[in-house]
Amino acid sequence: MSENKSPDTVLDLFNSIAAGYEVGTGGCTYDTARHIFSLCPITKDSIILDNACGPGIVAHYLLSAAAFSSQPAPTLHCTDFSPAMIQVARDTFAQLPNAASVSFDVMSGEDLSFPDNTFTHSITNFGIMFFPDAVQGAKEIYRTLRPGGTAVVTSWAKMGYVEPIHRAQKATKPHCELFVPPMPPQWYSAEHVIDVLKKGGFEHVEIHEKVVCFGGESAREVSEMVLKLFGGIITKTWSDEEKRRFEEELHKAVEHCQISFERPTFGREGAASTVFGVPMTALVAVARK
Predict the structure, then answer these.
(1) How many CB atoms lie within 10 A of CB 107?
(2) Percentage of the chain modeled with pLDDT above 90
(3) Residues 230, 154: Cα–Cα separation, whole Å
(4) Which of 1, 17, 28, 55 could hold 212 in an S-S bridge, CB 3.0 to 4.6 Å?
């Protein structure tokens, strides 16, 4: 029996938000991708799977890094079970000068069509928790990874936007059912991530936490991103007045919870821009075959 939501439910969710996904995540998944490749450097000869790729954030980071350093891009394969996500990735990458090194395929992470021992690196960045059968997904990661290759799988230990959402809900409708993020609760546990990867075949798994930021230029921008992602779910049955008040309360709650965060700037060594937002704590599991 599946431990997670039905494939159709999750597919519908990701198809519906595909166009705004990268912006809507406040840069936190991109920050995590940057961190991943500080742990496992790649070369022009690397062959990398961006598994459950969404709009291709991992691959986009790698192509951008290669372009800004004037280095050849590695070979990249982007796969996702959402046709809408793959189309967003295709459209985005068409604008990049080194896009020829990337392929795109609609493909389930539990049934990858690649031969055994294909990839030097396999990255599943905040995707495996939505697989109906995560252990089978881990087995496919293991099968398609070369001996000596590195797999990185990420999940969330803490989602920083939950606290301001709850504050805003309580201020608007004190007795309403509080928002629960659409991620199965077991995936907040490092032990669960390790267990899934070991059941998939990996013997050596290390995991650590990395704090990133769901951020933007202001608290207002961050609260608007949260509303775009989850507002329709949270306030679906609310009156227009309740929705208006919730928006204002969310803005105040984000201001209360926000931090400043220095986000590195591509192409400018040592440069960074200051963003404001809520901290997100990623679980980063590194496994070797």
Answers:
(1) 21
(2) 78
(3) 21
(4) 28
List Cα–Cα distances, 67 to 23, 41, 71, 202, 266, in angstroms: 21, 16, 6, 33, 10
Using alpha carbons, list the distances in angstroms from residue 161 to 146, 164, 246.
Answer: 38, 6, 14
d(CA 268, CA 271): 5
In this predicted structure, the answer to whether residue 4 has a pLDDT above a threshold of 60 is no
pTM comes to: 0.90
* Residues facing residue 207 across a β-bridge: 285
- Do the beta carbons of residue 70 and residue 62 sit within 8 Å? no
Query: Do residues 52 and 130 lie in contact, with contact meaning Cβ atoms separated by under 8 Å?
Result: yes
pLDDT digits (tens, 9 = 90+) for 159-205: 999 999 999 999 999 999 999 999 999 999 999 999 999 999 999 99
**Which one-letter amino acid corresponds to residue 216?**
G
